[in-house]
Amino acid sequence: MGDESGQQKKALVRWFIRASEVPLSKRKLLGRDPHPQEIFYYKGRSCDDEVDAESIIRPVQVLHLDAAAPFPESCDEDTLFVKMSWDSKTFKAVTSDQVDSGSADSAPSHLKPSLPPSPPCSPPAAAPATQGPSCRVLPTPDPAVMRKASCRETWSSRSAMSAGKAGRMEAESLHSASKLSASKCLSAKWTTAARTPGIRKKLNMSSPQKLSVDQDVLDRLLNEELESEGTLAQRLSASPPRAPPPHAPPSRLTPLKTAHSAAIALKPLSVIVNRRTSSDVDSPPSPTRPSTPSRTRPVQTLQEKEPLLSDLPELDGENSPSLPSGAGPRTSKRMSARLVSSRIRKQLNLLENHLDSDSDRDDQDQFVPLRTELQSSSEEDSGDEEDEEAGPPKRRRRGQGGGGPRTPRSRGQTVARTPRKTPNRKATPSTPRTPHRATPSIPCRSLPARRPANILEEARIRLHVSAVPESLPCREAEFQDIYNFVESKIIDGTGGCMYISGVPGTGKTATVHEVMRCLQHAADVDEIPPFTFVEINGMKMTDPHQSYVQILQKLTGQKATPDHAAALLDKKFSSPTPRRETTVLLVDELDLLWTRKQNVMYNLFDWPTRRQARLVVLTIANTMDLPERIMINRVASRLGLTRMSFQPYTFKQLQQIITSRLDKLKALDQDALQLVSRKVAALSGDARRCLDICRRATEICEHAAADPSAPGLVGMSHVMEALNEMFSSAYTTAIRSASVQEQLFLRAVIAEFRRLGLEEATFQQVFVQHQALCRVEGLQPVSVSEGLSVCQRLGACRLLLLEPSRLGILQRVRLNVSQDDVLYALKAD
Amino acid sequence: MSKRKVKDAHLPVGECITQLQKILRERLCNQQLPEKPEGVGAQHKHLLELLRRTAVHGESNSVLIVGPRGAGKTMLLKSVLRELLEEKEVQKNLLQVQLNGLLQTDDRIALKEITRQLHLENVVGDKVFGSFAENLAFLLEALKKGDRSSSRPVLFVLDEFDLFAHHKNQTLLYNLFDVSQSAQAPIAVVGLTCRLDVLELLEKRYIERVQTQLSLPQDFPDEKFAKDWNESVKALCEDKSVEEVLLRHFNCSRDFRSLHMFLMLCLSRVTVAKPVVKAADVLEAGRLCFADAKADMLHGLSILELCLIIAMKHLNDVYEGEPFNLQMVHNEFKKFLQRKSNSMYNFEQPVVLKAFEHLQQLELIRPVDGSSAKTQREYQLMRLMLDNSQIMEALQKYPQCPTDVKQWAMSAFG
């Protein structure tokens, strides 16, 4: 079963969260100090329920306690307590059956998987089995991931979730089907982690020649890691040491084996890790294995055959029933994946021959009877699982195509490719799944990004426009209005339009996104009915009609021509369907969807008015009077009168925004901050501009600091300099650094304008003045061609506006700057 | 002095001069970057810091380098990149995309070029690229995948940045800047343009630079020759008249390319017989550079055509720049013949028409915009494309110009 997809197994998990993984700002919501062994039942949706079985580390006990009950004086460090649930917003009390049996899944026992590189902890094999339903495995998070999770607390709640996710895994049961999601998310995290991830080590180990060396290396690495993590080590020391297998001491390091042995003990109720995976990891047999050999005998022959199968090209088709005919027409990528998997199998085959012990064979065979048990015991789940199984193999294959065929030397790249397979992608229905479509991505960096070294660098990261703030200060009222509007439409199952206007940089798009995040969350916890969110941006398409294509693609994943897509959408929104979800459509940069007939806008605003459509359209543009200005009446009337305009930020709001972004980081002087915000508020109220100036000021401060390692606070002078850079007239600088003749020519232009009383003159007229000025200045008068070239240079800088140069001396000249500016610049020279 | 040098030279002087010209030409033709950019130290440091932060910290940035043509924008960027790529950490990470507004004339071509340079086309295999819309979605998806710390930073260099701003809706620019402002793959956008502003200040070093440009490197094979050459260049730079020419050139433009052009002219006059640049050479080159093209053209005209031009000049004076036609010009010419001329005689109308058309072909006169081709050629309205000063200058130099024609040209009224 595990072999059907090569070498991956998945585990259904439920997520718990440690108190330390709750964002700092939310921790106070708990109202008390968390118990050191307290965990919270995690109710956020953005975690993948399935993880790679390899990532399981060891079992722990999770005990449910009443909210009011005190924590028992437990001395066992493998026992964790659940009192509350956490849904990324609030803590709630949780009932015991919620925790124990979950909502839908009835798998009675739970294994908590954790991540490689796992510490060498071997759980007491017998202990979990006796615990029955409440048996869990403690997630021992990768220290790197933990660090990352904690350092990214300023991120949006969603990203915080995904970052912390790795630590919150909990297995409900392990199924031997291919699953990568956990390892995907892990490897995404690991690209920045300084330590050598375990997965890479495992890959390494799968080549038999290197086996012994690499295991030693792994051993050492893991030990180092272990020592560096004090708390972890402490916990680990509590778990009883496991007898090392006779011939391969490193085996105790492999996380898989521990999960495996734990699973054996639990056999009747759960869970086993696939043999394939175990042999991938080259974990030698565990001595604690007496329970099942007799039952597994019958299947052994099948196991023996497998390496032969693996050489056949049809391997995939035979082994994975979920992809019956997929292997044939696929692209070369699949081909390579198959090659890779067969190569791996060959190697494994070799390896198995090397390892001669019987117990190894027992190990291999164990999964089969367990599998049958599993199927019978978790029939309720089977529907779910089949759905899930249909999806994953594709993804896995692609990932393998990218990473599989590489040798251990190119590991950096293997991992580098993986981040695109984050579980988040699975959550978005928009990703097209057409078979030929490949997902592009920027290659990953071979060296990790450097971490900010001092306060200023940290501040710069937080001040960057791209940093997503945890909350949006100063837009509470607008947030509430939009939230109420959309929420009411979703609850009522009706549709509607809303027009949001405001000058650039006032937080329109950010607010709407925040609303959507909150609503999505509310939908996740069943406060409101579920809905679909689709976003299009007028600037990100080449033609207004492309919006149909994009909407259709994001809603259904279909690809179509614009006309066809429009027809399909029209049909979709006008035909009555029971139990249709509300669709929320965000149209950014609405003004670019303008066409002469305005049919795109018309359709977008007409669909919500249909009774069955259940479509909420939020439109964003810059100008307040856009509906009146560019829309014909029938379009404007369909848009309706729900308008909202975002006012430019006042200086106090700007100040608050920056303060909240810096979040107690002492990088900016208070006066300097006020100066920036006042200056920007007086000009545009653009928050982006404000952030940019602050960022530039930190750069200037860093340069100015005598000691680069300890730069001081950003003061008034730095901010002034940054402001001058941003707001100083480019023209003035240009005129001042122009050559003498160019300056003379500008003066001649002004003189001629004054003489004519017009703002325009021919070159010939100006040239006469120019020659006169030359004589006054004591310079040799220039020839006409020289004068023309001077004029052309000024025109190229756009200080002058010129007619095409083929007109020669007859071309007309106009100033592109005001006369006063020119005179000011020339005088100050 | 030069003869003495020839005797002392270890190498044949011809070889020396060939080598010298080769070295200096390379330097003048911008084939190699200068060791250290001069006069733009602050900008250099700033840009280097900015790009380094993108490469090392994954911080998205965008910068616009503005300056007049020939001010050294590209040189600045190139030298910054050269320095940046010497760092190992950067070299391994940074991806570069070079675009030029003159080559990528619309967003569709630009997108394809970006995809090609990022080697993303491998992802789609041999599949031929679809529509523009697909292309855009493809690239955006690729960029969206990355995040600050894991993806390799991409450096977009947009040469002739202003031309990209003319693309429809500025789709490319919007999306690039949008990516740089959101938490996607880290990118740095560097725009180079000559519009709007001048950042570089090149003023006073200019004349000094002439010397550095022309001096020889130390490893020139013949030391003696090199020393003499450098000395002569130094002497040259102290010469009053040379300085005047250079100053005049500098007053006119601060463009490096035109200076290089100018120095090339000097350099090409160096031969075996005359192995140093003399002041006279510089003056001659200056004369070549500053010469007025149109005035030179007048020297090649026949006397009839010149007379027609003078008649037009008078018409321009009388009617204050109003357009004229052939009949008016011919009348003016005839008046001159009747009153003053004794060396010239009247031409037939077809001959005058021929001369007139020749002038039009030379673009010394051009038809007024509104006048259609339907009107008879004799009555088509024309404008003179020459300035009075150009005409007078040409007359001074015209070989064997009749005195009465000269006088006619100088007189206030026809």
Automatic annotation (TrEMBL), chain A:
Keywords of this entry: ATP-binding, DNA replication, DNA-binding, Magnesium, Metal-binding, Nucleotide-binding, Nucleus
Primary location class: nucleus
GO molecular function: ATP binding; ATP hydrolysis activity; chromatin binding; DNA replication origin binding; metal ion binding
Localisation per UniProt entry: Nucleus
GO cellular component, one term: nuclear origin of replication recognition complex
PROSITE patterns: BAH (PS51038)
InterPro entries: AAA+_ATPase, AAA_lid_10, ATPase_AAA_core, BAH_dom, BAH_sf, Cdc6_C, ORC1/CDC6, P-loop_NTPase
SMART domains linked to this entry: AAA, Cdc6_C
Region (Disordered), start-end ranges: 95-181, 193-212, 222-260, 275-340, 373-450
A Gene Ontology BP annotation from the UniProt entry: DNA replication initiation
Compositionally biased tracts (Acidic residues): 378-390
Pfam families hit by this protein: AAA, AAA_lid_10, BAH, WHD_Cdc6
Protein role: Component of the origin recognition complex (ORC) that binds origins of replication. DNA-binding is ATP-dependent, however specific DNA sequences that define origins of replication have not been identified so far. ORC is required to assemble the pre-replication complex necessary to initiate DNA replication.
Subunit structure: ORC is composed of six subunits. Component of ORC, a complex composed of at least 6 subunits: ORC1, ORC2, ORC3, ORC4, ORC5 and ORC6. ORC is regulated in a cell-cycle dependent manner. It is sequentially assembled at the exit from anaphase of mitosis and disassembled as cells enter S phase. Interacts with CDC6 and KAT7/HBO1. Interacts with LRWD1 predominantly during the G1 phase and with less affinity during mitosis, when phosphorylated.
Similarity comment: Belongs to the ORC1 family.
Record protein name field: Origin recognition complex subunit 1
Record organism: Sphaeramia orbicularis
Gene designation: orc1
From TrEMBL, chain B:
Residue ranges constituting the AAA+ ATPase domain according to the UniProt record: 59-220
Superkingdom of this protein's organism: Eukaryota
Pfam families: AAA_16, ORC4_C
The UniProt record lists the keyword Nucleotide-binding: yes
Gene Ontology annotations for the cellular component aspect, listed alphabetically: cytoplasm; nuclear origin of replication recognition complex
Cellular location(s): Nucleus
InterPro entries hit by this protein: AAA+_ATPase, AAA_16, ORC4, ORC4_C, P-loop_NTPase
Keyword annotations from UniProtKB, A to Z: ATP-binding, DNA replication, DNA-binding, Nucleotide-binding, Nucleus
SMART domains linked to this entry: AAA
A biological process term (GO) from this entry: DNA replication initiation
GO molecular function terms noted in the UniProt entry: ATP binding; DNA replication origin binding
Main location: nucleus
Subunit and interaction comment: Component of ORC, a complex composed of at least 6 subunits: ORC1, ORC2, ORC3, ORC4, ORC5 and ORC6. ORC is regulated in a cell-cycle dependent manner. It is sequentially assembled at the exit from anaphase of mitosis and disassembled as cells enter S phase. Interacts with DBF4. Interacts with POLQ.
UniProt function note: Component of the origin recognition complex (ORC) that binds origins of replication.
Family that this chain belongs to: Belongs to the ORC4 family.
Designated name of the protein: Origin recognition complex subunit 4
